Amino acid sequence: MKERERLTNLTLAALLALAVATGLTANTAGTSWGRIFVVLHGAAGVALLVLSPRKTRIADHALRRRRRRFGWHASLVLAGLVLVTVVSGLVATTGLTDRVGPLTLMQVHIGSAALAIPLAIFHYLVHHVRPRATDLSRRALLRTGAVAATAGVGWLSWDGVMRAAGWPGGSRRFTGSHERGSGDPAAMPVTQWLDDTVQHLDESTWRLTVAGAVYTLAELRALPQETVDATLDCTSEWYARQSWRGVRLDRLIDAGDARSIEVRSVTGYPVRLPVRDLGRVWLALEMGGEPLSPGHGFPVRLVAPGRRGFWWVKWVHEIDHSPLPWWVQSPFPLT
Q: Cα separation of 286 and 293, whole Å?
């Protein structure tokens, strides 16, 4: 394999790994520190496009010279999935549309990336490319720097195009999310994690269990409540700032000797919170001065400012101490 072809393949492998790592990190970040990962994720996608013509020439040359090698079908599928992942991500940033038929653009983006990962591993096992000491040579580093600079300029230019064109993407949040329904609960999207469905609960039979104590909805409403303006930032790439009213969690449960606090939905959906968050997380009963709708978590839901939407558990029915640290859980809920 020629040296330039080998470096191209090695760079593409590194870019794919970077895109996956930064994408996962960006999707968990709810505060401004996550901005850098959003930028790196976008730049990695642009870099893949920058190198795609060179990779196309390498693949064409290999097919002509060696005929079709083992795994070439998988390689073609991998290339298609990577292209779909990058293009769907770029289109999603514009905010001009958020759907492709029955799927959201983020479902297409994340789904195609998830399918590409095992194929990428298979591809690099079959077409193994080993790093060499010469990869750190001045020439190699200059080439890598040129690709990185081109990708960075490309990503910033894309941002500039969206602003100049007046597209919604020009004013998206630092997480990459677009505003949807701020101050208007009826206009805020209704989403839930994976296989959850909207729950229609009867307030006369619903009960909340907090460390063994049982509350009715009327008893919760009688507790001291606070109003907080907080932004729900969903991993479906939208956000909405709303006025929420509810009971602060430290008024309901004391940390005691617990290492974390587990909050569970009637659907079984759980999150484990650090005990230090008890004073800045609310169990909301109202949004925009009205009781929550079923789609937004009636009768009560978690409001966790600074955390992404999958932490904001809907249809809460149990809160309890946990002997485990809060980080002993999947970065994303598995169901």
A: 9
- Specify the amino acid at residue 49: L
Q: 29 vs 4, 223, 235, 272, 333, CA distance in Å?
A: 37, 32, 10, 16, 15
Each residue of 120-163: pLDDT tens digit? 998 888 877 778 777 777 777 788 888 899 999 999 999 999 99
Total count of domains within the chain: 2
Q: 17 in helix, strand or coil?
A: helix
* β pairing state of 282-287 and 290-291: antiparallel
Same domain? For 202 and 148 the reply is no
Q: What is the distance between the alpha carbons of residues 47 and 41, in angstroms, rounded to a whole number?
A: 10
Strand partners, 286: 245, 291
Q: What does the H/E/C string look like for 222-238?
A: CCCCEEEEEEEEECCCE
**Structure tokens, 4:** 């330039």
- Domain end: 129, 154, 178, which one? 178
The verdict on residue 123 lying in a domain is: yes
In three-state secondary structure terms, 37 is helix
pLDDT higher than 70, residue 76: yes
Q: Token pair for residue 27? A: 């999707």
| Domain carrying residue 206 | 180-322
